[in-house]
Amino acid sequence: MMTSRDVLHTLQRIWDVRSPSRWQYEDIERAELVGDYAITFHLRRPNRFFLHFFSSVTMSILPWNVEFSGRAIVGTGPFRMAACTDQVLVLEAFDDYFRERALLDRVELWLIPEMTSGERQYQLPALEEASAQKEQTGNQLAYQEFGCRYLIFNFRRPGFQHHPSFRKAMRLVYDRRLLMRQWMNSHAAPADSFLPEKSKQARYPETSLAEAKALLEESGYAGETIQLYFCDKQEDREVASWLQQRCEEIGLQLSLHAYCFSETLTRRLEEEADMLIAAEVLEKDVEWGLLRLFKDEGTFLYRFFNWEQHELLEEHLRDFVRLPEEAERARIIDRIEQLIRDENWLLYGFHKQKEARYHPALKGLSIESFGWVDFSKLWIRR
After folding, report:
1. Which of 24, 144, 193, 337 might form a disulfide with 53, Cβ 3.0–4.6 angstroms?
2. Is the CB of residue 150 less than 8 Å from the CB of residue 195?
3. What is the pLDDT of residue 269?
């Protein structure tokens, strides 16, 4: 049975392990247990996002008397972890969940490396063969995630990426519309923001490689090799190769380096990459997702921006969590994104349209944060 001691333990653990997300709880001055089922927090200042932070994935409650293991997490949700390997995560309904029991008894999440990156399939292998035949042409649900693909410069490493003219040249080389025409299908759209709705309002003028070459010369570039890193998956490999060819046309030498997903949080990327192809997927709680993007120590923005850039961002965000009106907070985000565009700290690329394929008998499917469905709401029509 979860108690307030588990809540306090979870919060203390975030600080003890120096979680990249500990900034969310920096307004807590102290916490007091008030019995087994109540806890009082004393804040240093008003914080309208306090409940957002405490309902985020980073504050998933862990038991105080069970040693943490990533392969056997003990939580408080509608499912319990039955098994976890590199290939599959098995979830089983948690009968003692404090709300309604999940309708499905068991969910298996299989990692299929060769599957298209923008696609998730929800299958019902237990149904009889006749029904399985129907599954091959099952239903599709298209959705667009908040967030985008982008190219980011590493300002913590010396190099030409610090020169504004170099970054302007790369903005012309990394032509979003041309990338859409040559490499992407109808499942992508050019990005000028992390938010798709804002990108739809933007204009994307034609670019000139001749202008890019002039800007490159203006930066003082003289044939040095620039290190471009990307995640080792098909889509990023194709974009990196396309970018390398475009750079060759203006005399810019790129050396391509693929990294494994398991290396994402290693120091190697900060130490070796001049530029990096990245992707950001925001939560359904978009305001919290953007705050996390700018402030969480695990994001590429936090790791690749220097302290001067962070101070500018913090200046904009200082009062964000205290503002009562959403419109006021939206204006702050607009100013930050405009600063990023004007200075080309990163180059917005494109938004991906994702697809979920599912058996016609599967009901209750709706897309939640990070493109996942709420498994507790799924049910099967026989």
Report:
1. 24
2. no
3. 97
Structure tokens at 216: 């490159």
SS3 68: coil
Give the single-character DSSP code of 224.
P
Answer for the pair 344, 335: CB distance below 8 angstroms, yes or no.
no
The letter for the amino acid at 195 is L
pLDDT, averaged per 10 consecutive residues of the chain (382 residues), comes to 92 94 95 96 95 90 88 85 91 91 92 64 63 56 83 98 98 94 80 96 94 98 98 93 98 97 91 97 90 96 97 96 96 98 98 80 78 84 80
Could you identify the residue written with the tokens 């003890």? Answer: 16
Helix (H, G, I), strand (E, B) or coil at 134: helix
DSSP reduced 3-state for 110: strand
CA 132 to chain centre: 34
pLDDT at 2 (0 to 100)? 86
CATH fold group of domain 78-138+360-382: D-Maltodextrin-Binding Protein; domain 2 (3.40.190)
Cα distances from 150 to residues 60, 192, 332, in angstroms, run 29, 10, 21
Burial 193-226 (b: 16+ CB within 10 A, else e): bbbbeebeeeeeeebebeebbebbeebebeeeeb
pTM above 0.85, yes or no: yes
> Residue 123: its pLDDT value, please?
74
Q: What is residue 132's predicted lDDT score, i.e. its pLDDT? A: 47
- Three-state DSSP at 34 gives coil
Question: Which CATH topology does 1-76 take?
Answer: Dipeptide-binding Protein; domain 1 (3.90.76)
Task: Name the residue ranges covered by the structural domains of the chain.
Answer: 1-76, 78-138+360-382, 147-354
Give Cα 327 distance to the centre of its chain: 24
Judge residue 188's burial from the number of C-beta atoms within 10 Å of its C-beta, 0-12 exposed, 13-18 middle, 19 or more buried: buried
Cα–Cα distance, 262 to 247 (Å, whole number): 28
The correct CATH number of 147-354 out of 3.40.640.10, 3.30.160.100, 3.40.1170.60, 3.10.105.10 is: 3.10.105.10
